[in-house]
């Protein structure tokens, strides 16, 4: 910009005061040089106008209004148009050339250039079509499919020039793709229309595992995972049985994400980690790869008494407080229960009758005095415990827990805990220690500092008082 202004000032000085010097050295060319200087001044003025337009319109007003850069191709086309108009005005003013003559000459030159630069011109007009149709814009995530490419290109549009569109890949590298590939091949724009987009993950398991049980487990973890940043709660995730073979069932887990917040690979990784956890926790078998004679699994045992015992083993409250024999004794007093989607497991302020360890599915934990004002504070899925503090201390429920999916859970009643404490009263101390640690962790999230000994003592006193009323424990 500064260089253009300096050149314009020098040309203006030469136009106003240079005639005597030109006449002294070349008397026959004074008029021609003056005409040339005038045309050059008009072109320089056009360049200054274009630079001001780029600075205050393209990079200022338009960028602020649209929230992204205008492609260089559009800006360059405006520049060419302004300079062409300035050149035509200069030649008409100084050389008496008509617009018809200029156009005829331009057509002849353009025809010659068009034959030599046919491929480049195709790219230019493809770029114009992309901008006119608003196929994609800088910042959009796209996948380009073409037989000319070794594999589909996925990345973010970072620039658009006369000949190429620049796509920045997930690894940070930039690919230059000729514009004509965008207009002659399928291009998936993941950013249009704005909003959440769907991804899917396939999970393959042994065909002998009941499909509805697997789907509830996977769906529960998906509900929990989509609460992470960049993933979308709506539309809700879903699990479909995609296909069946002689030894395998393929389950498709669908969920939604925001392309402008997170890319596909990290989004899939978040959900895959959650799904792997639930598969490992429940020892769900993968398809048998070799040919062998096997006995069919006893699913009543695997998904019955054994899963209750395994669920108790995974729950912190019982894993840290009970030994193997005590967990088996408690498992014999518990049962697996099912809740349909939308069912309320417990209501804030209600009395505690049982606590639950989630085996399959997901539940929403919400707080609020009125149903319309309730706010979700957590999602619990496979392996999580809900309602333990109220059941163990006799305090009213502090939250409302609602099934997001069909939920299968271990129900542990107050009577089951009482029977266990009758034979082992010293468990009160262990339970209070585990519950105190959990309460301290919850309070630390709320930036509140509490004394561990005081919290443990308070919980122990409540538990002793609550259970002493039931069966005379001292």
Strand content: 15-25%
Tally of separate domains: 4
Strand order of the largest sheet: 4-3-2-1-5
The coarse silhouette is elongated
**What is the CATH-assigned architecture of the largest domain?**
Sandwich
- Can you identify the CATH superfamily of the largest domain? Jelly Rolls
Class derived from helix and strand content: alpha+beta
CATH topology of the largest domain: Jelly Rolls
Number of helices: 17
| CATH top level class name of the largest domain | Mainly Beta
How is the topology of this model organized?
Blueprint: H1 2-17, H2 19-25, H3 30-66, H4 72-95, H5 99-116, H6 118-133, E1 141-144, E2 153-160, E3 164-169, E4 174-178, H7 179-184, E5 187-189, E6 197-206, H8 211-225, E7 231-232, E8 238-244, E9 248-257, H9 264-281, H10 299-302, H11 305-314, H12 316-319, H13 324-331, E10 335-339, E11 344-346, E12 354-360, E13 363-367, E14 375-380, E15 385-386, H14 388-393, E16 400-403, E17 407-413, H15 414-423, H16 427-445, H17 452-471
Antiparallel strand pairs: 1-2, 1-5, 2-3, 3-4, 6-9, 7-9, 8-9, 10-17, 11-16, 12-15, 12-17, 13-14, 13-16
Structure description:
This protein is an alpha+beta fold and 474 residues long. The protein folds into 4 domains: 2-116, no CATH class; 135-189, Roll (SH3 type barrels); 197-281, Alpha-Beta Plaits; 302-471, Jelly Rolls (Sandwich), CATH 2.60.120.10. The radius of gyration is 37 Å and the shape is elongated. It has helices spanning 2-17, 19-25, 30-66, 72-95, 99-116, 118-133, 179-184, 211-225, 264-281, 299-302, 305-314, 316-319, 324-331, 388-393, 414-423, 427-445, 452-471; strands spanning 141-144, 153-160, 164-169, 174-178, 187-189, 197-206, 231-232, 238-244, 248-257, 335-339, 344-346, 354-360, 363-367, 375-380, 385-386, 400-403, 407-413. The model has no long low-confidence stretch (mean pLDDT 78). The protein has 17 helices and 17 strands. Helices cover 50% and strands 20% of the residues. Helix 11 packs across helix 13 (324-331). It has a 5-stranded antiparallel β-sheet.
